[in-house]
């Protein structure tokens, strides 16, 4: 993607559909007059009076305990410099988004229009009663040091300047691990720190707390090496002034073991890297552009351990790994501070986690085959679900042991479970899917590429490396639209109606005619059919000219399914095609089957649908926990529709005892584990979180999925086609661009899996 398109995409992302990235959502009922009289006057007076009696009650009756202020004056925004409070707002909203998705912490971002230290401090102090914690962000040095010191001293809630300590914690963890891999001692290594601002000073202090030696450190600011004979050094810079007779980064880098970049983009050259000691460690953490590009650095030296602050390369050393989890732990024990003990505990928790076996889900989410502790994996990935279960407890424990926790935790197991539950639903699952597709791109034919939304989705799939698109439709229209949306690239475009592909059509017609000549198809009618985009596309997949197919954006579902079933047909061993939809619900992804094909499945069909759905759930890296739904609970109705579900369950229990499936069950019992445990403790699902619902018929499944989609505004992936011989996926009429991209990822993964299975079968033969 060109820089220009990336820029436009970022602007549209922030502007549409609603400007900005966060909003406030009520957490209490507000439907009735009674609700409103509790939410506001007169009921609201009661908690007010309780808090007046004891301020601590604010944690009991208001959102304070889970609310963090992300506060900036915009004086050191990423590496963009002093761009002002308004211009810093997108970054602060971004931090709010990260706090929420990684640690379920709510954030108000606050941009303060002052560069005066005292005014800033007084502003934060005055608004502090609202919050459970204060995250200072992107405030330049040296002001940041004084601001943080004073606020920590004068407030009794945790205050942390993220650029100092978040960065110090994560980079110290990465440094300890990198040193272990390069078999060097922190006491011995020569460290060059580029930057002498908030982040650089605090990082270096923390490395020293872990054993780095001041004499081995050279720090530089925008004027060059900070030497002890330089005039007017701030006290923080003076702390690291060197007596060595050097002035430039070039000189400092000679024989250095470690380079820490918290300064500006592109200031390190390959020549400098080559002058470093063997197995150098280079953390180029300036954002958004590092001190040296990742690829250039690893191309320059193959013995390097390289990290940047960016998410698009291995080893993202970025404070996003720190602040959500540190605040989570601090808030959960109502710590009055974030002290050294808590920071050290976070460092060790992060460093140790990188050495543990990585769950498959994380490998998939990052498109990796196998992440293991190595030069390319020195630190956990930000969306590793173990982070929330490991780092906050370590921080909370340290807070308790160092005497700053007002609400100690007693039951650690229970605490870990609540932390895991906090992760809830977000679009991790989509990320997981996309990254898995990227591992091994496949050729996806889009049968309706002359539709703008389809073409846009194909563009995203192409530019993000998810798929190799093949565009089917009216060629001149596709070319016109491609130009309009700046879809550049050497993409195959085919118009099945054109004579340009006559030979290909004749070949497909012959194959099709041979398949169906005893079912009333003549060679002439077969040739005519190949002018139809869905037949042509299906034949492309059938004949191996494409790996997967996507259609249905502008045609009704049945009209697209029919040619697919005729040309492609069912998988061997499969007697039914069916579909499942993944709904992103409050409680996490929920799979619903069969949402599109089988009007009234028999008991035997239901068993097939359940088995196929279990396969798809696993494809998402999730263990299926399935309820076979009904209006009846375990035999409470003797009606035929309930009996068929019961029969399907009996079969599954007998033939597939490993599957976690049970029923027949009403959906409230299926989804409420306490209710189920209380009433049906014998069930295989008792105490479990059901993530898959198999419905007794098409009506109930389809109605439920559409209801959830519209009423809850739930994002949906699907319908995902199951049971077909080749990867064929059909969109809902008028699907959105995002839905088509997600479906593309599904189609690619399906193709990957089918090819793997075919290869396995061939090797057995
Ligand atoms: N990856 C991560 O997690 C994080 C990365 N960062 C990045 O670190 C950088 C600094 O942030 P922060 O400390 O908050 O900002 P500050 O404004 O507090 O500090 C910036 C420092 O960089 C120095 N500097 C600027 N240009 C150069 C140069 N060409 N060579 C050497 N030093 C230079 C400045 O020198 P002088 O003192 O002379 O002005 C100053 O000391 C930013 O790029 C930011 O994105 C920050 C926090 C987290
Ligand atoms: C990551 C971050 O906080 C920064 O670059 O400023
Ligand atoms: Mg920052």
Automatic annotation (TrEMBL):
Amino-acid positions noted as binding NADP(+) in the UniProt annotation, renumbered to this chain: 77-84
Keyword Oxidoreductase: yes
SMART domains to which the protein is assigned, alphabetical: malic, Malic_M
Active-site residues from the entry: 95 (proton acceptor)
GO biological process: malate metabolic process
Binding site for a divalent metal cation: 137-138, 163, 287
GO MF terms, alphabetically ordered: acyltransferase activity; malic enzyme activity; metal ion binding; NAD binding; oxidoreductase activity, acting on the CH-OH group of donors, NAD or NADP as acceptor
Domain (Malic enzyme NAD-binding) ranges: 164-400
Keyword Ligase set for record: no
Tree of life domain: Bacteria
Domain Malic enzyme N-terminal: 19-152
Keyword terms: Metal-binding, Multifunctional enzyme, NADP, Oxidoreductase
InterPro entries in alphabetical order: Aminoacid_DH-like_N_sf, Malate_Decarboxylase, Malic_enzyme_CS, Malic_N_dom, Malic_N_dom_sf, Malic_NAD-bd, Malic_NAD-bd_bact_type, ME_PTA
Pfam hit, one: PTA_PTB
Similarity-based family: In the N-terminal section; belongs to the malic enzymes family.
Cofactor entry: Mn(2+); Mg(2+)
Name of the featured protein: NADP-dependent malic enzyme
CDD domains, alphabetized: NAD_bind_2_malic_enz (cd05311)
């Amino acid at each position: 993607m060109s820089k220009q398109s990336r820029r436009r995409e970022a602007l549209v992302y922030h502007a549409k559909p609603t400007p900005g990235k966060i909003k406030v959502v009520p957490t209490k009922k507000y439907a009735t007059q009674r609700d409103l009289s509790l939410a506001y006057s007169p009921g609201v007076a009661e908690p007010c009076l309780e808090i007046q009696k004891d301020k601590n009650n604010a944690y009991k009756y208001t959102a304070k305990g889970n609310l963090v202020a992300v506060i900036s004056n915009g004086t050191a925004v990423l590496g963009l410099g002093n761009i002002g409070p308004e211009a810093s707002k997108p970054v602060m909203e971004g931090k709010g988004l990260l706090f929420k998705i990684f640690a379920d912490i709510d954030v108000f971002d606050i941009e303060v229009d002052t560069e005066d230290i005292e005014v800033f401090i007084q502003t934060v102090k005055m608004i502090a009663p609202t919050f459970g914690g204060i995250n200072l962000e992107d405030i330049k040095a040296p002001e940041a040091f004084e601001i943080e010191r004073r606020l920590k001293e004068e407030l009794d809630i945790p205050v942390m300047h993220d650029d100092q300590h978040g960065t110090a914690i994560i980079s110290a963890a990465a440094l300890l691990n990198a040193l272990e891999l390069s078999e060097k001692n922190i006491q011995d290594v020569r460290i060059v720190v580029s930057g002498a601002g908030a982040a650089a000073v605090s990082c270096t202090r923390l490395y020293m707390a872990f054993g780095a030696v001041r004499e081995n450190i050279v720090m530089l600011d925008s004027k060059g090496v900070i030497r002890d004979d330089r005039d007017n050094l701030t006290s923080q810079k003076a702390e690291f002034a060197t007596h060595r007779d050097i002035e430039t980064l070039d000189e400092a880098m000679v024989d250095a073991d470690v380079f820490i970049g918290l300064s500006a983009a592109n200031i390190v050259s390959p020549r400098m890297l080559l002058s470093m000691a063997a197995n150098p460690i280079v953390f180029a953490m300036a954002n958004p552009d590092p001190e040296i590009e990742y690829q250039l650095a690893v191309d320059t030296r193959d013995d390097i351990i390289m990290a940047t602050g960016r998410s698009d390369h291995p080893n993202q050393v970025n404070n996003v790994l720190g602040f959500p989890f540190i605040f989570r732990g601090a808030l959960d024990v109502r710590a009055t501070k974030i002290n050294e003990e808590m920071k050290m505990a976070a460092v060790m928790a992060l460093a140790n986690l990188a050495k543990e076996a990585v769950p498959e889900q994380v490998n998939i989410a990052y498109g990796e085959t196998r992440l293991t502790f190595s030069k390319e994996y020195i630190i956990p990935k930000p969306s590793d679900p173990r982070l929330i279960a490991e780092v906050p407890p370590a921080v909370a424990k340290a807070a308790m042991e160092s005497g700053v926790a007002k609400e100690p935790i007693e039951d650690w197991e229970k605490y870990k479970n609540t932390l895991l539950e906090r992760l809830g639903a977000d679009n991790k699952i989509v990320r997981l899917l996309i990254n898995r597709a990227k591992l091994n791109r496949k050729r996806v034919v889009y049968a309706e590429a002359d539709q703008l939304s389809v073409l846009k989705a194909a563009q995203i799939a192409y530019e993000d490396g998810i798929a190799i698109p093949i565009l089917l439709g009216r060629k001149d229209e596709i070319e016109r639209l491609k130009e309009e949306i700046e879809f550049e690239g050497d993409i195959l475009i085919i118009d099945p109606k054109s004579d340009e592909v006559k030979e290909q059509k004749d070949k497909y017609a012959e194959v099709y005619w041979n398949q169906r000549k005893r079912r009333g198809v003549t060679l002439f009618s077969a040739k005519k059919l190949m002018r139809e985009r869905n037949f042509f596309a299906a034949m492309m997949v059938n004949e191996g000219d494409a790996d997967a197919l996507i259609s249905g954006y502008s045609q009704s579902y049945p009209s697209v399914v029919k040619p697919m079933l005729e040309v492609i047909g069912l998988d061997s061993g499969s007697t039914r095609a069916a579909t499942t939809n993944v709904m992103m619900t409050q409680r996490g992804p929920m799979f619903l089957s069969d949402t599109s094909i089988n009007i009234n499945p028999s008991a035997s069909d239901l068993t097939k649908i359940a088995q196929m759905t279990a396969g798809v759930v696993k494809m998402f890296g999730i263990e299926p926990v399935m309820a076979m739904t009904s209006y009846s609970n375990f035999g409470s109705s003797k009606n035929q529709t309930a009996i068929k579900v019961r029969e399907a369950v009996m079969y599954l229990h007998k033939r597939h005892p490993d599957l976690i499936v049970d029923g027949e069950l009403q959906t409230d019992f299926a989804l409420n584990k306490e209710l189920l445990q209380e009433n049906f403790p014998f069930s295989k699902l008792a105490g479990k979180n059901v993530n898959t619902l198999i419905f007794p018929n098409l009506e109930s499944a389809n109605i439920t999925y559409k209801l959830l989609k519209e009423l809850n505004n739930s994002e949906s992936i699907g319908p995902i086609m199951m049971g077909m011989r080749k990867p064929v996926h059909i969109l809902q009429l008028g699907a959105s661009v995002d839905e088509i991209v997600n479906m593309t990822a599904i189609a690619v993964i399906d193709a990957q899996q089918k090819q793997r299975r075919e290869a396995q079968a061939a090797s057995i033969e």
